[in-house]
Design a protein that fits this description.
By secondary structure, the chain is mainly α. The chain has 2 domains: about 10-75, Arc Repressor Mutant, subunit A (Orthogonal Bundle), CATH 1.10.10; about 80-215, Up-down Bundle (Four Helix Bundle (Hemerythrin (Met), subunit A)), CATH 1.20.120. Helices cover about 70% and strands about 5% of the residues. The chain has helices at about 15-25, 40-45, 50-60, 80-105, 110-125, 130-145, 150-165, 170-180, 180-195, 195-215, and strands at about 65-70, 75. The protein has a two-stranded antiparallel sheet with strand order 1-2. A hairpin with a 5-residue loop joins β1 (about 65-70) and β2 (about 75). The longest helix is centred in the middle third of the chain and has 23 residues, at about 80-105. The chain is elongated and about 55 Å long.
Length: about 220
Amino acid sequence: MSLEQLSSLDRTTLRERALASLRDAVISGHYRPGDHLGEVDLAQRLGVSRGTVREALRHLQQEGLVTAGTRGMLRVRALSSREVTELFQVRAALEGLAVAEIAARPDRDDAVRRLREALVTLAAAGEDFEARLRADLGFHLLLCQLSGNSMLVDSWRHLEGRMQVTIMSLDPGSWAALTSDDRHAPIVAAIEDGDVDEAVGVVRRHMAEAAEQYAGAHTA
């Protein structure tokens, strides 16, 4: 749902739809890191009150997508290189725990099947940026979900908005290479073999390489 498409909102879901529209505008790149988000302009575009926009922006602040700059002006959050590195370090810890849990199970066949299906979805996304973004994050979220650890999933979800903003900072060519199904396949292979150490190692290398690429696209 883009800002252009959303000319009016159903009053019963006004706040929820305004929030969804603004979130999508940020993570799709309609607004880039550092862009100013003015209440008046957004309220006019959405056809809602400034109060509704203010509440939606407050939610986006809590999600880490928006930050307050000078004089309280809200902008799309731009992560520093250090923050990007820390983000992928935390992802490595979370997803490393997830793959360790899955690989250690004797009944991991169904998990492997679902992960291979996710790889097919990733390959099928081709050059469609939004589809590839959904497929890439969907694969990593599935890893966490298959661990069976709800706290792990909640922790990963809390970082998801910042992951998406970070991805928007990299040029499509570099990002496509990082999200190819070939780069994800070794994770599934290690899980299928039941090799916990290798599964964790592959995830850590995967995240370290991504951190190096993404952090280089940010100023320190």
